[in-house]
Design a protein that fits this description.
This protein is α/β, with parallel strands linked by helices. It folds into 2 domains: 1-35; 101-221, 3-Layer(aba) Sandwich (Rossmann fold), CATH 3.40.50.620. Helix content is 44%, strand content 20%. The chain contains 8 helices and 9 strands. The protein has helices at 2-29, 43-54, 69-82, 110-118, 120-125, 146-155, 172-182, 205-212, and strands at 60-63, 87-90, 101-105, 128-135, 160-166, 187-191, 194-197, 200-203, 218-221. A hairpin with a 2-residue loop joins β7 (194-197) and β8 (200-203). α7 (172-182) packs across α8 (205-212).
Length: 222
């Protein structure tokens, strides 16, 4: 048993070394200055170390493998709600990043406003940005409408259009997925929501649904 554990540990370290070297090489090839670390830590220590790094970098990138999303959710929630930085979630099968056509999920709330501001460099560089408000699931009348947010983006040189969609069967996440597919969006920008469950915070329903199934990467802020 002890020999088996040691062999498995050596295998994990070798795999981590190989991935680190490949990542460093890819970064060097594109002219990106990088620092690669692969510490072997307990989850609580890994979470703390990752948060410390997140707070002093522009954006965090995590994968959204469906088989691991429940395991990784604690790290995703920590970055979204405790780092003060945006998070880019990459769905399975993505080998390259593009942000030429961006869909912004807008409901006029604080999280969506934060996401809009955090994503501004990407929005300015995009060919087209669609600001989408999904109505019919909750009352948005007291929040800032998309028509009022569009001039802010236009002043920053963003090529923006505004669309209001009705939630399909009350499902905001599915409506956003369909809109992203129909408009050939490369990226969805949205605010991340949390709800209280007794004494802990958990991701909101729309946030959860998109994390588990999105046709494109998600740029999220809280």
């Amino acid at each position: 048993m002890q020999r088996g554990w040691k062999a498995e540990n050596r295998r994990i370290h070798a795999l981590a070394d190989a991935v680190s070297e490949r990542t460093r090489g890819e970064a060097d090839a594109t002219g990106v200055v990088s620092t690669v670390e692969h510490p072997q830590l307990a989850f609580s220590d890994l979470r703390a170390a990752f948060l410390a790094q997140a707070r002093v970098n522009d954006v965090c990138i995590l994968d959204a493998e469906p088989s691991a999303i429940d395991i990784d959710q604690g790290l995703i929630e920590a970055v979204l709600f405790e780092s003060g930085r945006p998070l880019l979630i990459v769905p399975p099968g993505r080998v390259a990043f593009a942000a030429r056509r961006i869909l912004v999920a807008w409901d006029g709330s604080v999280p969506s406003a934060r996401a809009l501001g955090d994503a501004l460099p990407l929005l300015r560089a995009a060919d087209a940005v669609e600001l989408v408000s999904v109505v019919g699931e909750k009352d948005l009348s007291q929040l800032v409408p998309g028509a009022d947010a569009a001039p802010y983006l236009a002043r920053h040189g963003v090529n923006v259009s505004v669309t209001a969609l009705t939630a399909e069967n009350g499902d905001v996440a599915e409506t956003l997925r369909q809109s992203a597919s129909e408009t050939a969006a490369d990226l969805i920008v949205m605010g991340a929501y949390k709800h209280s469950r007794l004494r802990e915070w958990v991701l909101g329903g729309v946030t959860q649904s998109l994390l588990k199934a999105s046709p494109v990467p998600l740029f999220m802020s809280h």
